[in-house]
């Protein structure tokens, strides 16, 4: 056997939704993978918690001693698909310190420890790949790090969490409340028993951190990402959105902002927003994900597909595994972390945006001008106002609902306006405040 054909030893950590698909593909596509890589992949072992002979793989491949598996001399690449951050971090650091390449799908870990892991990869001159950590099967990390490496990325905006997109799509389609759409999503297996990471936007924020880091050559962690979840979005918001020609989506937005002095900053944020129906993200429904990238020379590019699930995620993991294995065979390395730009992070108040505000007000003359004055005081110009009378259980008029859509202003001016509105005597309640994205005004 020549050196080029020396097998590449692989350890897979985790045999769950994704790990079992990766193990299946390594076995079933062995000949094709060997031809593409230039050497066969050999599965040395699979790390799990429960070692048993009913797991669909030869029991002698299973081990609960992750450290020993990672440390084996005949393991060249470690594929981490366990999930919990602590054991994953420990295993990945040990692998990199031992000079092994690492492939992981762990967005929570990558968004939290990217610097530490990148440094360990750099010190070991080993590959650290994580395509599957953002948007499952959809290739977005590699296009950003390689295909667009010569362009300047201006904005990356996407729907990167399938659970929340499923819930919001159901609310839009059926007029369901948030609670009933969440209950359906849980029954159908789209939402976990504890849905906090998804519905409060933590998962999307981790992905936004990864996307912003890569797009803007700046280290961004999940703590740098402004975050709001979808739990306060109501059926009435969807009604208003429809009347305005919009849908409501949980967006992860990463943006390069340039001020008048040509100074650049990075914004990374996650929140539910109104999106005009003609925008490509408005029609991404169900559990699907999509990411729109805007670059200076390339213009707008859209990536769309299955953002989760064992097989789709395994596709992205396998892409990384083949790349890492080819690099081993050829004796090179793939692209590494690029953080040369070191752009500062812009606080949310600095971001120019548009607001949609829905409030219940007293039904008497002059209310609209009192409300409008609060916007005017802060230089926020109003683009659209809708007012409807409200009736109580006995059919008596009991106030009015006003929906205001603003033109672009800083988030700080807009949120100050909303605080002032809530203090007005004529305003009974501020029902909802959502941002409006995807417009040019
Ligand atoms: P999963 O079904 O819960 O499987 C996790 C696997 O890891 C199990 O086999 C489990 O062992 C093993 N494991 C967990 N903790 C361990 C520990 N401390 N020591 C040893 N083994 C341990 O998870 P998954 O859905 O496949 O997800 C795996 C990773 O991919 C996560 O980081 C996730 O965020 C990421 N990801 C998943 C998807 C998706 O659609 N599922 C999409 C994108 C990214 P036992 O089987 O013995 O319990």
Automatic annotation (TrEMBL):
The leader peptide range reads none
Query: Which residue range or ranges hold the ACT domain?
Result: 356-435
Entry protein name: Homoserine dehydrogenase
Which cofactors are reported in the record for this sequence?
a metal cation
Recorded hits in CDD domains, A to Z, give:
ACT_HSDH-Hom
Extract the Gene3D superfamilies matched here. Answer: 3.30.70.260, Dihydrodipicolinate Reductase, domain 2 (3.30.360.10), NAD(P)-binding Rossmann-like Domain (3.40.50.720)
The UniProt similarity line reads: Belongs to the homoserine dehydrogenase family.
Record field: catalytic activity: L-homoserine + NAD(+) = L-aspartate 4-semialdehyde + NADH + H(+); L-homoserine + NADP(+) = L-aspartate 4-semialdehyde + NADPH + H(+)
Q: Does the keyword Amino-acid biosynthesis apply?
A: yes
């Amino acid at each position: 056997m020549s050196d080029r054909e020396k097998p590449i030893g692989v350890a897979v950590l985790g045999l769950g939704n994704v790990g079992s698909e990766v193990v299946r593909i390594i076995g079933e596509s062995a000949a094709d993978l060997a031809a593409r890589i230039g050497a066969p992949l050999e599965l040395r072992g699979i790390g799990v918690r429960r070692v048993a002979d009913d797991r669909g793989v030869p029991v002698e491949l299973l081990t609960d001693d992750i450290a020993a598996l990672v440390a084996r001399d005949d393991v060249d690449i470690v594929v981490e698909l366990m999930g919990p951050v602590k054991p994953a971090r420990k295993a990945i650091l040990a692998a990199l310190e031992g000079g092994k390449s690492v492939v992981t799908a762990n967005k929570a870990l990558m968004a939290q420890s990217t610097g530490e892991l990148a440094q360990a990869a750099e010190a070991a001159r080993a590959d650290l790949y994580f395509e599957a950590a953002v948007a499952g099967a959809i290739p977005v990390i590699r296009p950003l790090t390689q295909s667009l490496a010569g362009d300047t990325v201006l904005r990356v905006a996407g729907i990167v969490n399938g659970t929340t997109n499923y819930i919001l799509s159901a609310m839009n389609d059926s007029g369901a409340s948030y609670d009933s759409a969440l209950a359906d999503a849980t029954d159908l297996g789209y939402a976990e028993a504890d849905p906090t990471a998804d519905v409060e936007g933590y998962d999307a924020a981790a992905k936004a951190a990864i996307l912003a880091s890569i797009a803007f050559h700046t280290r961004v962690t999940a703590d740098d990402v402004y975050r709001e979840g979808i739990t306060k979005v109501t059926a009435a918001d969807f009604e208003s959105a429809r009347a305005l020609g919009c849908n409501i989506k949980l967006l992860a937005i990463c943006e390069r902002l340039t001020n008048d002095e040509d100074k650049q900053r990075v914004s990374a944020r996650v929140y539910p927003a109104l999106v005009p129906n003609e925008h490509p993200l408005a029609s991404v429904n169900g559990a699907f994900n999509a990411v729109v990238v805007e670059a200076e020379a390339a213009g707008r590019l859209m990536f769309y597909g299955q953002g989760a699930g064992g097989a789709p995620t395994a596709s992205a993991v396998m892409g990384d595994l083949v790349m890492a294995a080819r690099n081993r065979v050829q004796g090179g390395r793939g692209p590494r972390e690029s953080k040369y730009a070191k752009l500062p992070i812009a606080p949310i108040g600095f971001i120019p945006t548009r607001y949609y505000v829905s409030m219940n007000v007293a039904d008497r003359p002059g209310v609209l001008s009192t409300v409008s004055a609060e916007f005017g005081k802060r230089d926020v110009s109003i683009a659209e106002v809708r007012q409807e009378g409200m009736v109580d259980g006995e059919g008596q008029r009991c106030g009015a609902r006003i929906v205001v859509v603003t033109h672009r202003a800083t988030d700080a001016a807009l949120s100050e306006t909303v605080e002032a509105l809530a203090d007005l005597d004529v305003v009974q309640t501020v029902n909802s405040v959502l941002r409006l994205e995807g417009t040019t005004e």
